[in-house]
From TrEMBL:
Annotated keywords: Cell membrane, Membrane, Transmembrane, Transmembrane helix
Keyword Transmembrane in annotation: yes
Organism, as annotated: Tsuneonella litorea
Coiled-coil parts of chain: none
Broad class of where this protein is predominantly found: membrane
Keyword Transmembrane helix in record: yes
Identification of the protein by name: Oligosaccharide flippase family protein
Length: 521
């Protein structure tokens, strides 16, 4: 089999803003599947109804929560160990450890859920017409648990090799094209909602096969069955995973537990619809979250590499990342919030009640994106014990806020607000920890000027988007998309320093982010 050279066997590359921008561009393309997913949601609601979509959303949220517990943090561990591996054998040892401890427990849990499905399935609130699907749907869908764990670990292994664009085919193919295509075919064939569950698991099987093919290019898979099974690299990977596990679990709790809580708070179809509405709001906010995820994927391995050679490089890329995130996330959040009426119309009139949830989540995700980039930096350079603090505080704050607001507010808005406050707090604490323990912070003398200009652009974009909602929906929605793109371009062009824009390479010239003749990196 053909194998690429291990990154550790090549000359070390300086980790600077240009290196971050290169990885970021590939990763954003890879994560564009999340944007396509948003487009697919109205089709799912149209085909299966809001209550049916809510049942699917609750079950997928449950799988994600369980996977984040029983993968033992292996989806993140390799970001810390593989970039520091000296040989291909060590990298294979880390991958083997992650697969054993990440996928193995998920297989056991899936088997137990399959066995006890008749007891567990009725705990979900669904529409009366969907009750007969509960047990067979659970017994089918539960096998997405080990499949999803494998896909998460495999794509994490690729990112650890600084192969940021490898998820393009995987994420877009499985998340959207195959799943939506199969679900549509099953729906037309008369399989109804059950066809959506079958389409999901089939798409994951295809994705897992593609993952193996890609892993063969960047890892020596023949070494998975050789060498030490519990060597230093394996132990380091295992303990790195356990140290990151609490923060991973809490992040997933903030993302998916509201759908489960709403499903349990409201009986029958009302619970299923509420779960669907929260999932719709979360999917819309994921456009903003995409900015943070893209940077997190890039920053973790690059920080590990930079820390090995020069701490000053870490500080430089940390500050650069925050400036670019602010310039993209806040104008985008403001436009989505301003255009929420027209955007939610895609899901029918029953989705109007999610307006407040959309506003809360998009701005919550913007703040999380800005502050939360500290977490991957902390994960790879600080002591393991520092990574648990943010998770604990985030959960406590979310619970306390929830107790105060869920009564006065409706359940959907109250739970959304509690979770948003919690994950913003959780994103802030690593920033404070890095400041006091590592003397690192991203707010250099240029940041206040960047923030002020971004704020002006965001306010203008949000106001124009809200005005655009007065147009007919078929005109308003594409207009809002154009406003979002124009706001982001304007923010990048006038808010970022010239060297930040130049670091985007040829793209900065093509988009006219830099004056003609400006040297680009």
């Amino acid at each position: 089999m053909s194998q690429s050279a291990s990154p550790s066997e090549t000359v070390a590359e300086t980790v600077d803003s240009r290196r971050v921008a290169r990885g970021l561009g590939s990763t954003i393309l890879a994560r564009m599947g999340a944007v396509v997913e948003i487009v697919a949601q109205p089709l799912y609601v149209l085909m299966f109804g809001l209550a049916g979509y809510g049942m699917y959303a609750v079950m997928w949220a449950t799988v994600n929560l369980i996977e984040n517990v029983f993968d033992l943090g292996m989806t993140s561990a390799m970001q810390r160990t593989v970039p520091k591996s000296a040989t291909d054998a060590e990298a294979a040892e880390a991958l083997r450890t992650a697969l054993l401890f990440g996928v193995g427990p998920c297989v056991v849990v899936a088997a137990l859920i399959w066995l006890y499905a008749p007891v567990l399935a009725p705990m979900l609130n669904v529409a009366v017409e969907d009750e007969h699907l509960l047990v067979p749907a659970v017994r089918t869908f539960v096998w997405t648990l080990p499949l999803w764990a494998f896909v998460e670990i495999a794509t994490s292994a690729l990112r650890a090799r600084m192969v940021f664009g490898a998820e393009i085919r995987l994420r877009i193919v499985w998340e959207q094209i195959i799943r939506l295509g199969l679900a549509s075919l099953f729906f037309l064939a008369g399989y109804g909602l059950f066809g959506l569950f079958v389409a999901h698991i089939l798409s994951l099987i295809v994705t897992a096969a593609l993952c193996i093919r890609l892993l063969r290019r960047y890892y020596r898979l023949d070494l998975l069955f050789r060498g030490e099974w519990w060597g230093e690299c394996a132990r380091h990977t295992f303990w790195a995973g356990l140290s990151i596990l609490p923060s991973n679990i809490v992040a997933r709790i903030f993302s998916d537990s509201p759908a489960l809580i709403l499903n349990q708070l409201l009986p029958g179809a009302a619970g299923a619809r509420a779960s669907g509405l929260f999932t719709i709001a979360r999917k819309l906010s994921s456009v903003v979250q995409l900015v943070r995820i893209a940077f997190v994927y890039v920053m973790a391995p690059l920080t590990a590499s930079a820390e090995r050679t020069d701490r000053a490089q870490v500080n430089a890329i940390y500050s650069y990342a925050v400036r670019v995130i602010v310039a993209i996330a806040f104008p985008l959040a403001a436009v989505i919030a301003g255009g929420r009426y027209s955007i939610l119309s895609l899901f029918g009139k029953q989705a109007d009640v999610a307006q407040a949830a959309v506003v809360i989540l998009v701005f919550g995700r913007a703040f999380e994106a800005t502050l939360g980039i500290s977490l991957p930096v902390l994960q790879v350079i600080a002591h393991y014990k520092h990574q648990i603090t943010a998770s604990l505080f985030g959960v406590v704050v979310a619970v306390l806020v929830g107790r105060e607001v869920i009564g006065p507010l409706d359940p959907l808005t109250g739970i959304t607000l509690a979770m948003a406050v919690g994950f913003v707090v959780m994103a802030t604490i690593p920033l404070v920890q890095l400041l006091f323990t590592e003397r690192l912070h991203p707010f250099d003398r240029r940041f206040p000027f960047v923030a002020a200009k971004v704020l002006a652009v965001a306010v203008l974009g949000g106001v124009v988007a809200e005005i655009a909602t007065a147009l007919p929906d078929e005109i308003a929605i594409p207009t809002i998309v154009v406003i979002a793109l124009a706001s982001i371009w304007t923010s990048l062009r006038i808010a970022l320093p010239l060297d930040d824009r130049a670091s985007l390479g040829k793209m900065s010239r093509h988009l006219r982010l830099v004056p003609p003749g400006t040297p680009v990196h």
